[in-house]
Amino acid sequence: xxxxxxxxxxxxxxxxxxxxxxxxxxxxxxxxxxxxxxxxxxxxxxxxxxxxxxxxxxxxxxxxxxxxxxxxxxxxxxxxxxxxxxxxxxxxxxxxxxxxxxxxxxxxxxxxxxxxxxxxxxxxxxxxxxxxxxxxxxxxxxxxxxxxxxxxxxxxxxxxxxxxxxxxxxxxxxxxxxxxxxxxxxxxxxxxxxxxxxxxxxxxxxxxxxxxxxxxxxxxxxxxxxxxxxxxxxxxxxxxxxxxxxxxxxxxxxxxxxxxxxxxxxxxxxxxxxxx
Amino acid sequence: xxxxxxxxxxxxxxxxxxxxxxxxxxxxxxxxxxxxxxxxxxxxxxxxxxxxxxxxxxxxxxxxxxxxxxxxxxxxxxxxxxxxxxxxxxxxxxxxxxxxxxxxxxxxxxxxxxxxxxxxxxxxxxxxxxxxxxxxxxxxxxxxxxxxxxxxxxxxxxxxxxxxxxxxxxxxxxxxxxxxxxxxxxxxxxxxxxxxxxxxxxxxxxxxxxxxxxxxxxxxxxxxxxxxxxxxxxxxxxxxxxxxxxxxxxxxxxxxxxxxxxxxxxxxxxxxxxxxxxxxxxxxxxxxxxxxxxxxxxxxxxxxxxxxxxxxxxxxxxxxxxxxxxxxxxxxxx
Lengths: 276, 334
Known about the structure:
The complex is a heterodimer.
Chain A: H1 2-34, H2 39-42, H3 57-65, H4 68-99, H5 105-114, H6 124-134, H7 140-164, H8 168-176, H9 181-192, H10 194-210, H11 213-218, H12 226-231, H13 241-261, H14 263-271
Helix pairs in contact in A: 1-13, 3-13, 4-7, 4-10, 7-10, 8-9, 10-14
Chain B: E1 4-13, E2 16-26, E3 31-35, H1 42-50, E4 57-62, E5 65-66, E6 77-80, H2 92-102, H3 107-120, H4 136-148, E7 154-158, H5 166-183, E8 186-191, H6 194-200, E9 203-208, E10 211-216, H7 218-223, H8 228-233, E11 240-243, H9 245-248, E12 254-257, E13 262-265, E14 271-280, E15 284-291, E16 298-303, E17 313-318, E18 324-326, E19 332-333
Parallel strand pairs in B: 3-8, 3-9, 6-7, 7-8
Antiparallel strand pairs in B: 1-2, 1-4, 4-5, 9-10, 11-12, 12-18, 13-17, 14-15, 14-17, 15-16, 18-19
Helix pairs in contact in B: 2-3, 2-4
């Protein structure tokens, strides 16, 4: 009896989970499907689901009209650079919070997170002026710094949670064994926290890749990443849904593939501490 | 060389003083055990010596040099932790080699020392395994191996055997004592287990609430405990402590007599009591005997063959030469 109920419930939850999953994935699926339609079919009413003339012409046009590789390369540099820089800054920060906490550590962590509550547009003006002043507008370096700063709280938080799981005695042992602070971080803490660091890197790479507000506002040509590439197709030229979809698909494909292969790490990273 | 001196050392956590001013000298080559109930400050004291905690005031000298503000890595001390604290991502070989690598020693010398240490500790077959693949006793030996390769001025052990099962603990106790004889290096060993303290130490430091209650050799502590705390803490089973009218007969506030220093008779003796629980260990039997002058039953050791009925009446005679007397403050009266 009990068993029957459990099985039934399991089936139900599974179905529900699939339902929610598909619902969330649907816009992405629709974008991908639309990218293979003609412009006319893309806006057909009622919408056509699968029964259309599959075509690659949108991709050909997009490829012809803009330099995809340049945008892709900028995206890689911005996402990769900001994540790497963030990790380098966050490892020592999280180390000190996890292993030599003070009375204010919890407050600092919350305060750092609270900066994420501010709408980005609230600081657009000062940052924009700073960028002009420093000559960072439309530069990769400037964008790397801004993206690093906006994701830093999350990186520190994630690493902090991971580091807390590492027994302090092991670090003390390293200190007794003659390791300097640098050696302790390099040879003991970092290798032990590799799974945690990996999922932090992945998540922040994805966040930086998808970041659109700052990348759109602070770049024009030279530093423009894939978000700008997509945006350039939603222009006043008119509604070209199929081409816009093709551009979007091209922009999200690399990160989608990366995410697919690193699912396990990502899920572990996001649920860490909650389930263990 | 490993002479360690603590001069007026104190430690406070916030407003709470866990170590009141404390003076102690540990001679070179000595096996010193810090023993006391949990929370007595013995581990804190060890961590102060290691440098893992900063002292609040006072001076720590190692080999006559002020080490108070020296970082742990530069004190020349090696520590074995309760949890072993092995590096889980390194093989046994790399674990043992780690302190040598940190000392920037040449690879040939490192290999030589690791091989030698592994031989001493029977770890040769396990050098390429990870700590996770070892048993508790083996992990313990790796932790010791990591400590000995450096040839430190002194070894610090923080309750190293408390995670092992009873049989293994006796074996490792012997191994550590053996190691001390072989290396002749200063060792400071923290434990709450007075049996470990008695069996291993050259010198025992009994601590309570951060205070040193007594320092002495195991036999000194056993024969002449300075106060009732040490009297009750050292020795197994515990010394019988009797206060009140019976103690007054001996001109003391409290008298103490060890279970092995009471003679038991069915017919005569100054103390009359009723037999309670008997513990038969084979070699000895411990009887818990309720006397009318004491709230708690007295523990009495008798030969292993002796059997007494529960509830039987017996007579006890404390051996006068082994009777300990303490005043109202709990201090020993000579």
